[in-house]
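Q: How would the structure tokens look for this protein?
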Amino acid sequence: MTGGSGEPLQLAIPLGDFSVDALGAAAGGTCTIEAVARQAVYYYLAEADSGRPGWRYPRFLGVEAGQRETTLSLRIETAVWERFVGEAERQRVRPELLLRHAVLFLAADVEAGRVARRMLDDLRDAG
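A: Here is the predicted structure in token form.
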């Protein structure tokens, strides 16, 4: 892993099929999965004080079935990454696992927003 200001951090993160699909869905064909993973770090840290259930890394989360290793090349500020690593240490989990959780956390919120938009559109169309 490297980490000068703005240098890409090379992270080999084991992601199962579900995580890879979540990254792709959140990307929606408009950006790369690396961009979504980077955004997940920022989003996860921004939600730290939200008190939301599901923010902390769930202890029951194990290795996903169908696991494959995906290498993500992230361009992220060193200070942000260090803060994320610090959070991983506080939660006693490896940063790579917390990143996988952060990706799923973001993807769930993205999907929830899509569902909310669809519901509002359906209500509008119904009159």
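The first strand starts at residue 8 and ends at 15.

The chain has a mean pLDDT of 78.

Upvote if useful.
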